[in-house]
Amino acid sequence: MSLRSQNAALNSLLDAHLSSLAEEEQLSPSLILDALEAGSMVLLGNPAHAGLRPLLVGQPSRVKVNANIGTSPLCNCVATELRKIQAAIDSGADTVMDLSIAGDLDAIRQGMLKACPLPLGTVPMYAVGQRLLDADRDVASMQPDELFEEIARQARQGVDFMTVHCGLSLRGAEMAVKQKRVMGIVSRGGSMLARWMLENNRENPLLEYFDRLLDVCREYNVTLSLGDGLRPGAGVDAGDAAQWEEVINLGRLAVYALERGVQCMIEGPGHVPMNQVRTQIQGIKRLTNNAPLYVLGPLTIDSAPGYDHIAGAIGGAMAVEAGVDFLCYLTPAEHLTLPNEADVRAGVLASRVAAQAGEVALGRPRALAREAAMNAARKALDWDGMRKAALDPAQLDARREEHKHEDVCAMCGKFCAVKMLQGK
Predict the structure, then answer these.
(1) Residue 163: Cβ-neighbour burial (10 angstroms; 0-12, 13-18, 19+)
(2) Is it true that the peptide bond before 60 is cis, omega within 30 degrees of 0?
(3) pTM recorded for the entire structure
(4) Which structural domain range is residue 230 located in?
(5) Other CB atoms within 10 Å distance of the CB of residue 59
(6) pLDDT tens digits along 352-386
């Protein structure tokens, strides 16, 4: 059976939005429908999310950028998180993920859904973990029903995509813990599930009862973001057996889910040295049947705290050129603290720069048109044209404010090379 014949919620979104999506992406409706059926593209959108603007992710649509926000036990201000949503939107993010682990998570999530017209993602395991730890229960005491009930609750609330670590098997958890990994398991959700499996000597309930998960997600067109619980948390761990064991599982699960009417993305590596980025991306895409690939960074070095958005943008640009579809931002706060609004803005723009660089290298028409517009405007000293072509017009305005009435930049003034040869 086809994807659309099984997924009524997806069909309702397509009926309402296909023509506008095709216009926005500069793709034909038939190409979009074929890509959705093949599983190489997904349409993020839960009809229960009021005011949503559905979004296509996957080639050959434009590369998208996600912004992570959310509370922590040490920094818990709901108003700040709502301001960060607006900062992400204003900076050009395409999606937002709520990674909250402190406070009234239901109220926080519902407030974010109301405030955010972009697709909103979550990690349901976080809410389950919060309830367990706040009740002084060991994560290993979780009952599978608690996790599936949380997933169903969030789907009803309107969450559009969910990170679920379905590919993390008991075998993979044992490999990551017992086989000399420098950083072990760095995924929060992955570590909780690994503890549950190792303490109970049982298989991952998300893997064992995968059909139950699909039944919930199909009803609401919740896209599964198949999580990389065993992603490398240090460059030296990239490409080890535990990582690839999980990737193989994710590829199997994505095919199975698509056959049953549920859309899937694949989450990709975190810390990967530059010389391994291309082979990692191409290997993951091959093993997961070209499903949309959603990557954190990847970070090309581990030694730049405060500048991880730069290390991630370097890896992100290389990853896009190698076939990545969706970039999750890193901010200057990564590995240090909760990001503030300025960090959100810096992270979104760093990932957007990476996406543009990768798409220029791929020869994507929209990306090349932006470059051509900027070049023409610079040659003509057309500052309004430069502003329109810029990824961040507000930054251009701020930097130019003191000398905005000049027709040259403040670095060169009357020595402007472009002006020197005008008319020659």
Answers:
(1) buried
(2) yes
(3) 0.96
(4) 3-363
(5) 18
(6) 999 999 999 999 999 999 999 999 999 999 999 99
